[in-house]
TrEMBL record:
Lineage, opening ranks: Archaea, Methanobacteriati, Methanobacteriota, Stenosarchaea group, Halobacteria
GO cellular component assignments: membrane
GO molecular function: hydrolase activity
Organism: Halobiforma nitratireducens JCM 10879
The name this protein goes by in its record: Alpha/beta hydrolase
Keyword hit for Hydrolase: yes
Amino acid sequence: MATLPLADDSGSLWYDEYGDGRPLVFVHGGWMNGRSWRPQIDHFADEFRVVTIDVRGHGNTGATDRTRYSIELFADDLERLLARLEADGTRRDGARDDGAPILCGLSLGSMVVQEFLSRHPDRAAGAILAGAVRSMPPVGLPAGMKPLVSPTPAVSTSLSMAGPRTTFRSLLYSIRATTGGPWLSVDPAVRSTAMDAVGEISSAEFRKVFDALFRYEPPSLTGVSTPTLVVHGEQEAQPVVRQGERIAAAVDDGRHLTLGDAGHLVNQDRPRAFNDIGEKFLGGLAAV
């Protein structure tokens, strides 16, 4: 793994690199880590310079000195990483990496990528948003209502009394009650691995990540010219799917696909299908 000192001197961002070529940067979901992209690393590293990161509060990056996190802060970190990749853009064979980066984000990671796209509408060569969500909750609330209905105090109490695993499981149960199915993943092994990742996160970091998710107010993506593919599993919560459809409709070149027999962690539930549609999408991108 490599590390990148964060701009606010609060810690270091940990990331991994595999292969050579155009940078293909993966941003994981909330309370996961870069290892969640293993099926994509194995598939794409022969053609791309695959980069996975551990977002603040997660994985090897772990806790930082910031008392509050935000999606905007995570996007700042992504910008810093991309600057590092551009500055260090040499391949292992000594040649230069060629082309603008491609970004792929899942859930929380999809928010980070959307924030980046809103700031830089044409800087990325392409974007794949898996389990894409615009806001939490995934339904619109009247202006000023979010602070009044925030579940953060209840989450904080649960974390103090029961810890991250039980708190995360309670969140899953509440979502499953609205979907009627195994929302997170249809594969018990994938769910187990996800729970292991949650168990690596402290209660304090879990709380900061949850707060970042809930407080985020998504920007308009109108005018974003980056080709964007939005992918959901058929077991995804319908309000989230509707948000994904709006993302695809908002950008200039967007499309939305649903994969059967898959939940929120669609890249792990259907890795071969996800990789195939990702490869087709990436193959259609114009050279930049």
